[in-house]
Amino acid sequence: MKILFRNVTAVTMDPDRPVIQNACVAVEGTQIASVGQEHPRGEFDRVIDGQGKALLPGLVNCHTHVPMALLRGYGGGHDLQHWLNDYIFPAEARLDARCVAAGTALGLAEMIASGTTCIADMYMHTGAVARTVLESGISANLSCGGVYFGAPEDFSPDTCGDCRNQIALTEEWNGAGDGQIKVDASIHAEYTSNPPLWQWMAGYAAGRGLGMHVHVSETRSEHESCLQKYGKTPVALLDQYGVWANGGTAAHCVWVSDGDMELMARRGITVAAHIRSIAQVEDRPFSPLGEARDTLLAVQQAPFPVLEEKAGERMRAEILRAREAGDSVGGVVECIVTGLPAGVGSPMFQGLESHLAAALFAIPAVKGVEFGSGFGAAGMRGSAHNDPFILEDGAIRTASNHAGGILGGISSGMPVVFRAAFKPTPSIAQKQHTVRLSAGTETDLQITGRHDPCIVPRAVPVVEAAAALVLLDALLDRNTDQIAWSAPQGARP
């Protein structure tokens, strides 16, 4: 079916043109065919006039139990364990596939009505959930929530019901509906299973290329009970059995520790920035081959983010001198991205560099952006600028990183390194010559009030956030579905 939405305010994910007024959006089947102000050619099965309305990408619900719409409000007012053991688990034991399908249909209808078009769901009778998802048109990552209460020594995947459910779910539904459904491996939680299941599920996920979906540290009692029983937090305990190796969804994480967050970060992508320079004062640069994770965490948490404290002291002194003179100074923010696999992005107009640069130039006061060697590359020969490929611990890397982790618009697997130059704050206390438009005469202007003599320190988290958003958008692109994820590169142990 071909559908045309016309006269809408289109909110896009394009950093160059985020909002398009009076737009036409053409949809063919499950794909957006075109977005723009020109009316696309051809006939359409349905034309929808969106005058006065906005059209934007669908919302994503990252953790759901959709069939539980049937149990809404049941057993309220109790702590999690009491609610689960005394109310929910007994009620769920009476649900069959027909009930689960009905609850799924209700929950999906409510989500679609509120703009949600993609979910990550964990529930039993998952085949019934999958069939209802296909009928609804929504996209979903589905999992069955592996549970095992038996003795560890008695565990066998052949007799464990949720192991068999996981295999059946994957074989029947992974990739169904032309990719509408993807299957995740799943462990309900640490407290509803034990190590043999964790190990088997992690191995199954690795062998089939599946993500993982787990409840983690949802309550304080769960977190502390695991510490008491195993001497480790749920995150660290599950990591011991390889649960996080392929990534996935750690749901809730209400009581995770700083160490837990760091551990999970090691399984993913880290974005960190620092003040590379203010005026003529320079901090040491990030190593283009990567930085120790402790270094990146420290600079992320620093009130004045520099790698060398003495450089920071000189920068602060330079800012104070500018303020005392009624003047301002600019500077450079440098950002590094580690753990990004090779193959993210695409050539030409969808390249990582173009999207990152567009987002960075959208930050007020940015006047220049460079990647890797940047403008320095203009004075180098190709033989010096090219990054030779090498093998290191069985992985392909480059011996240098003049390209800044991006080749032809596509990530190379090396750290992505770039810099953004910020101009001095134009609002200064000194008199400045200008023109009075109303009178058509030249005059002097002197601004009063509080104005930052340097905006660079404030820009550091903004650069990090802009980079993270662009990379997330690139990773969600269909072109990244087949990326071979491996151990993060560039974050040195």
Give the gist of this structure.
It is built from 14 helices and 25 strands. It has 493 residues and is of the alpha/beta class.
How many domain modules? 3
Total strands: the figure is 25
Task: Briefly note the structural class of the backbone.
Answer: alpha/beta
- What is the gyration radius calculated from CA atoms? 27 Å
Unreliable spans are 478-493
Shape: globular
Compute the separation of the termini in Å.
52 Å
- At the third CATH level, what is the topology name of the largest domain? Chorismate synthase, AroC fold
The main β sheet shows up as: 5 strands, mixed
The proportion of residues forming helix, as a percent range, comes to 25-40%
The CATH architecture name of the largest domain reads 4-Layer Sandwich
The average pLDDT value, as a whole number, equals 89
CATH superfamily of the largest domain: Chorismate synthase AroC
Strand content: 25-35%
**CATH hierarchy, class of the largest domain:** Alpha Beta
Helix segment tally: 14
Overview of the molecule:
By secondary structure, the chain is of the alpha/beta class. β7, α3 and β8 form a beta-alpha-beta unit. The C terminus is likely disordered. It folds into 3 domains: 56 residues, Roll (Urease, subunit C, domain 1), CATH 2.30.40; 207 residues, TIM Barrel, CATH 3.20.20; 223 residues, Chorismate synthase, AroC fold. The chain starts with a strand and ends with a strand. Strands 1, 2, 3, 4 and 5 form a 5-stranded mixed β-sheet that branches. The protein contains 14 helices and 25 strands.
